[in-house]
Design a protein that fits this description.
- This protein is α/β, with parallel strands linked by helices.
- The protein has five helices and twelve strands.
- It has one domain: Class I glutamine amidotransferase (GATase) domain (Rossmann fold, 3-Layer(aba) Sandwich).
Length: about 210
């Protein structure tokens, strides 16, 4: 996959999780990255990654810093957002086990820590529409996408459940693509961010 990423800047929420691994992979693909901890840090970004960690702690931080509203508005303007593991929980409309609040940007139900000890930390493979070969997935006490709404496209699966999904300018993964050597998922996200940035530059409104 060839991605045009000239001058493309991607913000990465730098509160918890392996945000540095996300940055390294994006930089390897030619993108600029910036750590996001305040609303001002999002300025000029074509995309945003919400990495793993503890979702309740992250949501508390986002609300306290005024980032929660900023991220929602960023999404509504067509900015590309990719949530991995805890980031997927933050994006979900409905979070269970236990129930918690979220940004409610994607019509899906996510069960926290649903894989439990079975794959508390494991490397598996699953089918994906992004390439012919199976996609390597690293799960670390990963959530499960129990329900994906009609406008949510499944890009990869594991154990019969969606593991990588997309809704227009939003993506979510229940695994950690930044912890593998496979750049497929990040390439796809950069392509999405690039395409959405061009649409905004041309005055095309998001269909969200």
């Amino acid at each position: 996959m060839v991605v045009e990423v000239v001058a493309l800047k991607i913000g990465i929420l730098a509160v918890q999780g392996d945000f540095e691994a996300h940055a390294a992979m994006l930089q390897q693909l030619g993108a600029q990255t910036t750590e996001v901890r305040t609303p001002a840090d999002l300025e000029g970004c074509a995309g945003l990654i919400l990495p793993g960690g503890e979702s309740t702690t992250q949501l508390k931080f986002l609300k306290e810093e005024g980032l929660a509203d900023k991220i929602v508005k960023f999404a509504e303007r067509g900015g590309a957002i990719f949530g991995t593991c805890a980031g997927a929980i933050l994006l979900a409309k409905d979070v269970q086990h236990p129930k918690q609040d979220s940004l409610k940007l994607m019509d899906m139900t996510v069960i926290r820590n649903a894989y439990g000890r079975q794959i508390a930390s494991d490397v598996v493979s699953g089918p994906t529409s992004l390439k012919k070969e199976p996609l390597e997935m690293v799960f670390i006490r990963g959530p499960v996408i129990e329900r994906a709404g009609p406008d949510v496209k499944v890009l990869a699966e594991y154990a019969g459940k969606p593991a990588l999904v997309q809704r227009e300018n939003l993506m979510a993964a229940t695994f950690h693509p930044e912890l593998t050597d496979d750049t497929t998922v990040h390439e796809y996200f950069l392509s999405l961010a690039n395409s959405r940035a061009k649409q905004r530059a041309n005055g095309v409104k998001s269909s969200k």
